Amino acid sequence: MGKIESSCIIDDDPIAIYGIKKSMKEIDFCNKIVIYNNGQDAIDGLNSMVEDGMELPSIILLDLNMPIMDGWEFLDDFIKIPNCNTEKVTIYIISSSIDPRDIIKAKNYSLVSNYILKPIKSNDLLKLLSDIGTQ
Amino acid sequence: MLETLSRTISIEEAPIAIATLDTNLCFINCSRVWEEAFTASNKDIVGKSFFDIIPNSPQKFRKVLENSFSLKDNIIEEQRHILPDGSSQWYKWNIKPWKQSEDEIGGLIIIHTNITKEKHVKELLIAAENVAKMGGWDLDMITNTIHWSHITKEIHEVPLDYVPSLETGINFYKEGEHRENITKLIHNAVTHGKTWDTELQIVTAKGKELWVRAKGMPEFIDGKCVRLYGIFQDIDKEKKAEIKNAQIKERLDLATEVANIGIWEYNVLNDKLEWNEQMFPLFGVKREEFKYNFESWKATVHPEDLERCLKEFDLALSGIQDFKTQFRIIHPDGSVKHIKANAGLFKDNDGKIIKMVGTNWDITQLVNTQLKLDKSEESFKGSFKSSAVGMALVAKDGSWIDVNDSLCTSLGYSRNELLKLTFQDITHPEDLNDDLEHLQVLLEGRGNSYHLEKRYFHKKGHIIYVVLTVTAVKDIEGNLSHFISQVMDISAKIEAQKKSEEFLELTKNQNNSLLNFAHIVSHNLRSHSSNLSMLSNYLVDEEGESERKEIEAMIIDASESLDETVMHLNEVVQITTEAKEQLQDVNLKTIVKNVEKNISAHLQQKNVECDISIDPSIQVKGIHAYLDSILLNLFTNSIKYSSPNRIPRISIEANKVGKTIILNFKDNGLGINLERHGEKLFGMYKTFHQHEDAKGIGLFITKNQIEAMNGKIEVESAVDQGTLFKITFVAA
């Protein structure tokens, strides 16, 4: 169980981002945190990373409800990024929605590893790291 | 003899009409009888000419008299004399010349007999003989000579000079029973003095078979038959007709027996009623109990029919109408039979009705069948008329033969109006072919009925939904005669169905908004509450002052957001709960103009060009506050998402379409990628633009408000060209 190089948070809620960042720091989750405020920004950012030959963040924490492009739309567009080594990226849905329909829908996406209910606590992140390590 | 007489007694004394004439045909003398016969007064006729005294002697007689001088024997002449009064008399003259000396004729002796009576009787006989084709015959048994009269000879087709004998006479009878019979009859007459009168067949000299009536009588003198005489009559025509009649009668009897036809004959003069064999079982009357008069017939007739029958009988007897009728009779066992009766009249030579002959037969079964038929027809008519289901009799060409009240009511036409139309006229065009195809199957005899759901147009133009059942009716030969259509109006049902579909849609919508609402609660409220719980935990653990301040600020943000979300939700709940009762008529143009005025500063700031074209008379069913809110939202959206590359332009127009008002709100702004966001456009907290004010609540509330007013909102948009919101309101 070692820390990872970089992770990405896609969420429009500044408070939620604050919380996640705080928890990450607490457990020394990663070296680098990339933040996008909606799906479109994230697609654009990740796209240019691939173009620049940079390695994608190995973990993406994705909120569902966002303006412009929501989490679902992001998932649809993400797999379309050309030359993208999506296998090295693990995506977790982070949402405050306790609507079972959202949870079921999330499980239908093969890209999505798990669904984590907000607020995100440091324990959630530790479990996440251990899951990756055992893979 | 006369010579002797003249010498002994005077000729005047003779008891006969006798006269002597001289050679000049003048009277020498005459008997008193002669005088009485030819002279009215006691005139002396001696010396007068025969022709002066008997002036009307025919010329022929004059010649006879003149010739008489040369005759030796007496001659007998029968002459018809026309008297001065025009009447005629037959005289028989017996004329003989008398001699003065051996060689010299002195004159004529004339004896006169009036034979008028005898002559008439004889003439009558001959006439009768001719008319009746009746001949006479006379057989002298002593001399065995036979005399046939003229007619008798004609009947036998022998020449007038033919001389028959007893044997040849008998041989004219047809061999076999006829000849045997006549031989026997003659024998009986000769030996037992019996007369005969029989009908037998002869074969004439020309080989023709004839029926004759032979009548004969013997004359006996001293117990010995001396003479046979009789008459002989040609009855061939009558006999053959009789035989033919007998055959016809036999056939008729057989026919009437088989057909169970009763025949009766009523003699009007003596009130005698004859019945044939069939009549008795027909009327259920025993032969021995029948009185053979009019009364006994009357007794059988049903009391309710009697009066009418008697009237018809009288009318027939008075020749006003034929006796062709129908009546009921009651059998002794109480059963009622229906009798059909026809009769004809027989009149005597004076045209007086003497009898009526007629037929009777039992039509009970026919009448009962007819009654049943009438009843079933009646019950059909009854149910046709009063049926709650629309019914029609339809001709093969589709025209109505008859329609019932229910159908008229369903379709809104009066009976007369509907009868002028065909079913094609009132059928919804989309349903016509289906109906016609089914009908064709019946017309071609490939089916008896069909069943379909179709639409008619009501007189007022709206649609009537029906279930139609068409049944083919065939005539007695099995040919298609017409159709019976049953038209069940299911409009109410269809309307109810539509309503329940609408309700279902409404429920579905409400359900959807409930789900949506649940989602909003589970997500939006929770996102704030989770933030708050997270932040408050941090606050408890955090010791750094600046950090705490930061967290506290975020807690305030989160609680404000929570408050805002709760307000929004409240607003939505308000819309769905309070709306519909508050609908009122609102003038659309006024509303639009007001909202435009309220945000005019905002519009001016952005240089928005507004083009409002709404007929001032347009009113919608709406809620003032909602309409304000909707328009304000649309205006601000258009301003907010206007394109920086062009002058913002908003055009608003409204049109009345049927019972709705359609408001088109169009801008030339950024537009929305509908392919991508279409589904979520009117969802809560959905934003599609990178804009600081985008909260994703406006269109959600707008949609809810419009739907609360029974309207709907649709959108057309192209990115970077503009957006058109099309809002449908209910017209006031």
TrEMBL record, chain A:
Annotated InterPro entries: CheY-like_superfamily (IPR011006), Sig_transdc_resp-reg_receiver (IPR001789), TCS_response_regulator (IPR052893)
Domain Response regulatory stretches: 6-133
Q: Which Pfam families match?
A: Response_reg (PF00072)
Indicate the transmembrane segments per the record. Answer: none
| The keyword Phosphoprotein is annotated on this UniProt entry | yes
Q: Which Gene3D superfamilies match?
A: 3.40.50.2300
Sorted keywords for this record are: Phosphoprotein
- PTM-bearing positions, type 4-aspartylphosphate: 63
Q: Which residues form a coiled coil?
A: none
State what protein this is by name.
Answer: Response regulator
Which organism is the protein's source?
A: Arenibacter arenosicollis
